[in-house]
Design goal:
Number of domains: 2
Mean pLDDT: 84
Largest sheet: 4 strands, mixed
Helix content: 10-25%
Low-confidence stretches: none
Distance between the termini: 31 Å
Number of helices: 5
Number of strands: 8
Radius of gyration: 17 Å
Order of helices and strands: HEHEEEEHEHHEE
Length: 170
Protein backbone atom coordinates (compact mmCIF):
# COMPACT_ATOMS: atom_id res chain seq x y z
CA UNK A 1 0.00 0.00 0.00
CA UNK A 2 2.77 2.47 0.86
CA UNK A 3 4.36 1.96 -2.53
CA UNK A 4 1.21 3.00 -4.43
CA UNK A 5 0.62 6.06 -2.20
CA UNK A 6 4.21 7.17 -2.80
CA UNK A 7 3.79 6.61 -6.52
CA UNK A 8 0.60 8.68 -6.70
CA UNK A 9 1.72 11.52 -4.42
CA UNK A 10 0.67 14.81 -6.01
CA UNK A 11 -2.02 13.26 -8.16
CA UNK A 12 -5.45 14.90 -8.30
CA UNK A 13 -8.84 13.71 -9.42
CA UNK A 14 -9.20 16.45 -12.03
CA UNK A 15 -12.50 16.05 -13.83
CA UNK A 16 -15.60 14.14 -14.77
CA UNK A 17 -16.88 14.42 -18.33
CA UNK A 18 -20.49 14.11 -19.37
CA UNK A 19 -21.98 14.02 -22.84
CA UNK A 20 -24.60 16.74 -23.39
CA UNK A 21 -27.24 17.06 -26.08
CA UNK A 22 -27.39 20.88 -26.18
CA UNK A 23 -24.13 22.57 -25.22
CA UNK A 24 -25.55 26.08 -24.82
CA UNK A 25 -28.44 24.88 -22.65
CA UNK A 26 -26.03 22.93 -20.44
CA UNK A 27 -23.61 25.86 -20.26
CA UNK A 28 -26.42 28.13 -19.11
CA UNK A 29 -27.40 25.62 -16.45
CA UNK A 30 -23.93 25.05 -15.03
CA UNK A 31 -22.88 28.71 -15.28
CA UNK A 32 -26.01 30.75 -14.52
CA UNK A 33 -27.84 28.33 -12.26
CA UNK A 34 -25.02 26.49 -10.44
CA UNK A 35 -22.44 29.31 -10.57
CA UNK A 36 -19.57 27.50 -12.30
CA UNK A 37 -17.33 29.35 -14.72
CA UNK A 38 -15.86 28.29 -18.04
CA UNK A 39 -12.20 27.47 -17.56
CA UNK A 40 -11.45 26.62 -21.16
CA UNK A 41 -13.11 25.63 -24.43
CA UNK A 42 -11.74 23.23 -26.99
CA UNK A 43 -13.60 23.03 -30.28
CA UNK A 44 -13.08 21.34 -33.60
CA UNK A 45 -15.31 20.73 -36.59
CA UNK A 46 -17.40 18.00 -34.97
CA UNK A 47 -16.65 18.20 -31.24
CA UNK A 48 -16.80 20.82 -28.50
CA UNK A 49 -15.43 20.36 -24.99
CA UNK A 50 -15.95 22.91 -22.24
CA UNK A 51 -14.23 22.62 -18.87
CA UNK A 52 -16.01 24.32 -15.96
CA UNK A 53 -15.11 24.85 -12.32
CA UNK A 54 -15.76 27.10 -9.37
CA UNK A 55 -13.73 30.33 -9.21
CA UNK A 56 -12.00 29.44 -5.95
CA UNK A 57 -10.06 26.63 -7.65
CA UNK A 58 -8.02 28.84 -9.99
CA UNK A 59 -8.48 30.25 -13.46
CA UNK A 60 -8.10 28.85 -16.98
CA UNK A 61 -4.38 28.26 -16.55
CA UNK A 62 -5.21 25.73 -13.83
CA UNK A 63 -7.96 23.87 -15.73
CA UNK A 64 -5.95 20.66 -16.03
CA UNK A 65 -4.16 20.83 -12.68
CA UNK A 66 -6.98 21.33 -10.21
CA UNK A 67 -9.78 19.31 -8.68
CA UNK A 68 -13.51 19.60 -9.24
CA UNK A 69 -13.61 20.20 -12.99
CA UNK A 70 -16.66 19.27 -15.03
CA UNK A 71 -16.21 18.60 -18.73
CA UNK A 72 -19.20 19.06 -21.01
CA UNK A 73 -18.74 17.14 -24.25
CA UNK A 74 -20.89 17.72 -27.31
CA UNK A 75 -20.39 16.24 -30.74
CA UNK A 76 -22.44 16.26 -33.90
CA UNK A 77 -23.05 12.56 -33.20
CA UNK A 78 -24.61 13.15 -29.77
CA UNK A 79 -28.15 11.85 -29.72
CA UNK A 80 -31.00 14.13 -28.71
CA UNK A 81 -31.57 12.02 -25.60
CA UNK A 82 -28.36 11.40 -23.71
CA UNK A 83 -28.19 8.15 -21.74
CA UNK A 84 -27.98 8.75 -18.02
CA UNK A 85 -28.61 6.89 -14.77
CA UNK A 86 -32.04 8.37 -14.05
CA UNK A 87 -33.59 6.65 -17.08
CA UNK A 88 -31.03 3.83 -17.36
CA UNK A 89 -29.90 2.67 -13.91
CA UNK A 90 -27.41 0.29 -15.51
CA UNK A 91 -25.51 3.32 -16.85
CA UNK A 92 -22.03 3.74 -15.36
CA UNK A 93 -22.38 7.35 -14.20
CA UNK A 94 -24.44 7.56 -11.01
CA UNK A 95 -24.51 11.29 -10.26
CA UNK A 96 -22.68 14.56 -9.97
CA UNK A 97 -22.48 15.82 -6.38
CA UNK A 98 -22.27 19.47 -5.33
CA UNK A 99 -21.64 20.67 -1.78
CA UNK A 100 -23.39 23.95 -1.06
CA UNK A 101 -23.39 26.28 1.96
CA UNK A 102 -27.17 26.89 1.90
CA UNK A 103 -29.22 23.99 0.57
CA UNK A 104 -32.58 25.75 0.89
CA UNK A 105 -31.31 28.70 -1.18
CA UNK A 106 -29.88 26.27 -3.74
CA UNK A 107 -33.21 24.45 -4.10
CA UNK A 108 -35.03 27.76 -4.42
CA UNK A 109 -32.65 28.88 -7.19
CA UNK A 110 -33.05 25.60 -9.06
CA UNK A 111 -36.84 25.90 -8.95
CA UNK A 112 -36.67 29.54 -10.14
CA UNK A 113 -34.90 28.22 -13.23
CA UNK A 114 -37.41 25.43 -13.83
CA UNK A 115 -35.00 22.67 -12.80
CA UNK A 116 -36.62 19.36 -11.92
CA UNK A 117 -36.01 18.72 -8.21
CA UNK A 118 -36.53 15.01 -7.57
CA UNK A 119 -36.15 15.06 -3.80
CA UNK A 120 -35.91 17.91 -1.32
CA UNK A 121 -33.96 17.61 1.93
CA UNK A 122 -35.89 16.36 4.93
CA UNK A 123 -38.50 14.57 2.84
CA UNK A 124 -38.90 11.14 1.37
CA UNK A 125 -40.89 12.44 -1.61
CA UNK A 126 -39.15 11.37 -4.81
CA UNK A 127 -36.94 8.70 -3.25
CA UNK A 128 -38.32 6.08 -5.65
CA UNK A 129 -36.85 7.85 -8.66
CA UNK A 130 -33.61 8.52 -6.78
CA UNK A 131 -33.43 4.86 -5.70
CA UNK A 132 -33.86 3.71 -9.29
CA UNK A 133 -31.14 6.07 -10.54
CA UNK A 134 -28.69 5.03 -7.82
CA UNK A 135 -29.48 1.34 -8.20
CA UNK A 136 -30.83 0.93 -4.65
CA UNK A 137 -34.05 -0.56 -3.42
CA UNK A 138 -36.57 2.05 -2.28
CA UNK A 139 -36.68 2.58 1.52
CA UNK A 140 -40.03 0.84 1.97
CA UNK A 141 -38.32 -2.48 1.19
CA UNK A 142 -36.56 -2.12 4.57
CA UNK A 143 -32.99 -2.54 3.35
CA UNK A 144 -30.15 -0.03 3.01
CA UNK A 145 -31.37 1.82 6.11
CA UNK A 146 -28.08 3.71 6.60
CA UNK A 147 -28.14 5.03 3.04
CA UNK A 148 -31.74 6.23 3.37
CA UNK A 149 -30.99 7.92 6.70
CA UNK A 150 -28.11 9.80 5.07
CA UNK A 151 -30.14 10.70 1.98
CA UNK A 152 -32.89 12.16 4.18
CA UNK A 153 -30.90 15.42 4.48
CA UNK A 154 -29.79 15.50 0.84
CA UNK A 155 -31.51 16.94 -2.22
CA UNK A 156 -31.51 15.51 -5.73
CA UNK A 157 -32.24 17.32 -8.99
CA UNK A 158 -31.63 16.82 -12.71
CA UNK A 159 -29.54 18.83 -15.15
CA UNK A 160 -30.88 19.65 -18.66
CA UNK A 161 -29.93 16.19 -19.95
CA UNK A 162 -31.40 14.38 -16.94
CA UNK A 163 -28.12 13.68 -15.15
CA UNK A 164 -28.72 13.17 -11.44
CA UNK A 165 -27.32 15.93 -9.22
CA UNK A 166 -26.82 15.30 -5.51
CA UNK A 167 -26.85 18.48 -3.43
CA UNK A 168 -25.34 18.35 0.04
CA UNK A 169 -25.16 21.16 2.55
CA UNK A 170 -21.77 21.58 4.22
Amino acid sequence: MAESSTFSRGWLHNQVGIRVSDLEKSLFFYEAVLGMQVLTRISSDTLSLVLLGYPEGGGPEKALSREGVLELSWSEHTQKSVTHGTQHPECGLLKLAFSVPDLAACISRLKEHGVKVLKEPGTSDGVGEVAQALGFEPPEKGRNKGIWEFIQGVAFAQDPDGYLLELIQY
